[in-house]
C-alpha cells in the first residue's frame, strides 16, 4: 500500500478509499472529447466535511494533486484526472441540509443533484432556477465549479446569481466560510463569486447557501420554424428589443432537429432550417406568445405553432434537452463548443458556423440558449478516422476564433478546463492572465488543486 493511501486511511473509512484500476479508469474523465486524462493514484468518496479536510491536509503534506469531481458531466475536461492525483468525488455528500422558505434559501452539500434540489424546493412552492440540460445528472458542486447556465437563465440568470455563501476546504485543509445567508451583504471582497466558475482550482466546496425564488407557473412554449438559422437569430433580436422576457428562448438547427427525431422518434419538423422555442411562465402568457409569434413571422418564420398545453410544452423542452445526446449519436463522437456572443451578432455566428462546417467537410449541429447568445455548435465526427478528427479539432478552434472576433467569449457556461486553456490566454490577454494566476497562487501556493486546468 502506498504512503498516500496509508495516510488517507488514517482519516477515512476503507469503503471511501478506492484503488481498483478499473474503478479509477472509469472516474478518470468527464464527458469532453479531445481532453487528456492522467492516471489517478486513488479515488476518495468522502461523506463528511472533516474527511475532505483530511484529504487536503495529506495531499498538501505529500504534494499530491487533488482533482475535485461532481457527476463528471462537464464538457471541458475540468474534472479529468492528472497523473498520480487523488480523485476527490463529492457525490456522496448529497444532503439537502435545510430549505428555508422565509429567507428563500437552501443549504446543500455539493453532491446534491440539480434536479433533486429543484424537486425538493418545489414542495415548498419555491424554485432553484439554474437548469442545465444535464440537470438530472449534474451536481450543485459541479454547477458552482463551472458557473453553469441553462435554459431558463435568459430570464432568471445563471448559477453565480444564486450562490450566496460557501464553505470551502482550502488547499491546506483549512475551512473557509464565505458570503452570507442574508438577503443582502457587502462585507469584504466577494470571495463567494470568485469560487463560482473556478473549476476546482481554488478550493473544494463542501456546503453552499443558494437563493431560491417563488416557483413560477408552468411555462407555455411556442415553436417557430425558419428558412435559415440567421432569420431565427434575427427573431431573437426582435423579441428582446421589443422588451419581452421569455422564460426560455432556445434554438435548434436542422441537424439537431433531425438528430433528436432519430433519437426520440418525436416528429419535429425536419424541413426547417432552424426551430426557435420561446417560453413564457407568466400567469396569462397568451398575449405575449401571440406578440412573439408575430415578431417571429416578421423575421421570416414559415410556421409558428404555440403548444396547446404545458404537457406539449414539456415535450418540446425534452426535445431541446436531448439535443447534445442526439448529436452524439450522429457519428459517435462530438466536440461541443460553447461560444457566447452579443445577441445582435447571433445571426453572424450561425452563418459563420455553417461556413466552417462546409470548409471542413463536417456535420456541425447547433443548439443554442439563443436568448443569451450562447451557442453550442457541436462538431459530429468519427473519432476512429484521424483525418476527420483533425478537421473536427480545427473547426472547433475556428468557431472559437469567430466567437472572439464577434465580441464574444470562448465559454458561456461550460468552463475552460483542459479544452480551452490556450484560448483563455487569447481572450484575457497577458495582464488579466497574470492577475488571475496571482489569485490562484494565493489560494493554492503549492499548486495541488486541479493542476493543468484553466491556465
Ligand atoms: C447532455 C449534457 C447537457 C449539458 N447541458 C448544460 C447546460 O445546459 N448548461 C451548462 O452550464 N452545462 C451543461 N452541461 C455541462 C455540465 O453538465 C455542467 O458543466 C455541470 O455544471 C457539471 O456538473 P458536474 O456535477 O458533472 O461536475 P463535474 O463535471 O464533475 O465538475 C465540473 C467542474 O467543477 C469542479 N467541481 C466539482 N465539484 C466541486 C466541488 N465540490 N468543489 C470545487 N470544485 C468542484 C470540478 O473540478 C470541475 O472543474 C451539459 C452536459 C451534458 C453531458
From TrEMBL:
All copies of the FAD-binding PCMH-type domain together span: 36-215
UniProt-listed SUPFAM superfamilies: FAD-binding/transporter-associated domain-like, FAD-linked oxidases, C-terminal domain
Q: Which InterPro entries match?
A: FAD-bd_oxidored_4_C, FAD-bd_PCMH, FAD-bd_PCMH-like_sf, FAD-bd_PCMH_sub2, FAD-linked_Oxase-like_C, FAD-linked_OxidoTrans_Type4, Oxid_FAD_bind_N, Vanillyl_alc_oxidase_C-sub2
Q: Which cofactor does it need?
A: FAD
Question: Which UniProt key words apply to this protein?
Answer: FAD, Flavoprotein, Oxidoreductase
Q: Which Gene Ontology terms cover its molecular function?
A: FAD binding; oxidoreductase activity
Q: Is the keyword Transmembrane assigned to this protein?
A: no
Q: Which residues form the signal peptide?
A: none
Q: PANTHER family in the record, alphabetically?
A: GLYCOLATE OXIDASE SUBUNIT GLCD
The family annotation for this protein states: Belongs to the FAD-binding oxidoreductase/transferase type 4 family.
Protein name as it appears in the record = Glycolate oxidase
Amino acid at each position: 500500500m502506498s504512503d498516500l493511501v496509508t495516510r488517507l486511511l488514517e482519516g477515512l473509512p476503507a469503503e471511501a478509499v478506492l484503488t481498483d484500476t478499473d474503478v479509477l479508469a472509469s472516474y478518470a474523465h468527464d464527458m469532453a472529447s479531445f481532453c487528456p486524462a492522467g492516471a489517478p493514484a486513488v479515488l476518495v468518496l468522502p461523506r463528511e466535511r472533516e474527511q475532505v479536510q483530511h484529504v487536503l491536509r495529506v495531499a498538501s503534506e505529500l504534494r499530491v494533486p487533488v482533482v475535485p469531481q461532481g457527476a463528471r458531466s462537464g464538457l471541458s475536461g475540468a474534472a479529468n484526472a492528472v497523473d498520480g492525483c487523488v480523485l476527490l468525488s463529492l457525490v456522496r455528500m448529497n444532503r439537502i441540509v435545510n430549505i428555508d422558505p422565509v429567507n428563500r434559501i437552501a443549504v446543500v452539500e455539493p453532491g446534491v443533484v440539480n434536479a433533486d434540489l429543484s424537486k425538493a424546493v418545489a414542495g415548498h412552492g419555491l424554485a432553484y432556477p439554474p437548469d442545465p440540460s444535464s440537470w438530472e445528472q449534474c451536481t450543485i458542486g459541479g454547477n458552482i465549479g463551472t458557473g453553469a447556465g441553462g435554459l431558463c437563465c435568459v430570464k432568471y440568470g445563471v448559477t453565480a446569481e444564486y450562490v450566496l455563501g460557501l464553505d470551502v476546504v482550502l488547499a491546506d485543509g483549512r475551512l473557509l466560510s464565505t458570503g452570507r445567508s442574508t438577503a443582502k451583504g457587502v462585507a469584504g471582497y466577494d470571495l463567494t463569486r470568485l469560487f463560482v466558475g473556478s473549476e476546482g482550482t481554488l478550493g473544494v466546496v463542501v456546503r453552499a447557501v443558494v437563493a431560491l425564488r417563488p416557483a413560477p407557473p408552468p411555462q407555455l412554449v411556442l415553436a417557430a420554424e425558419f428558412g435559415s438559422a440567421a432569420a431565427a437569430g434575427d427573431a431573437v433580436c426582435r423579441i428582446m428589443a421589443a422588451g419581452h422576457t421569455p422564460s426560455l428562448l432556445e434554438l435548434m438547427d436542422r441537424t439537431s432537429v433531425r438528430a433528436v427525431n432519430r433519437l426520440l422518434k418525436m416528429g419535429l419538423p425536419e424541413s426547417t432550417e432552424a426551430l426557435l422555442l420561446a417560453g413564457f411562465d407568466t400567469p396569462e402568457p397568451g398575449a405575449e406568445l401571440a406578440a412573439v409569434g408575430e415578431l417571429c413571422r416578421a423575421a421570416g418564420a414559415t410556421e409558428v405553432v404555440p403548444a396547446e398545453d404545458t404537457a406539449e410544452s414539456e415535450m418540446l423542452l425534452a426535445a431541446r434537452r436531448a439535443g447534445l445526446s442526439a448529436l452524439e449519436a450522429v457519428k459517435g463522437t462530438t466536440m461541443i463548443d460553447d461560444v457566447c456572443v452579443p445577441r445582435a451578432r447571433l445571426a453572424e455566428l450561425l452563418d459563420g458556423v455553417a461556413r466552417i462546417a462546409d470548409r471542413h467537410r463536417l456535420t456541425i449541429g447547433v443548439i443554442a440558449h439563443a436568448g443569451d447568445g450562447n451557442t453550442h455548435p457541436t462538431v459530429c465526427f468519427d473519432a476512429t478516422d484521424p483525418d476527420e478528427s483533425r478537421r473536427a479539432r480545427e473547426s472547433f478552434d475556428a468557431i472559437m476564433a469567430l466567437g472572439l472576433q464577434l465580441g464574444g467569449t470562448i465559454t458561456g457556461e461550460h468552463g475552460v478546463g483542459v479544452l480551452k486553456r490556450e484560448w483563455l490566454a487569447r481572450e484575457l490577454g497577458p495582464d488579466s492572465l497574470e492577475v488571475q494566476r496571482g489569485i490562484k497562487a494565493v489560494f493554492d501556493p503549492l499548486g495541488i488543486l486541479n493542476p493543468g486546468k484553466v491556465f
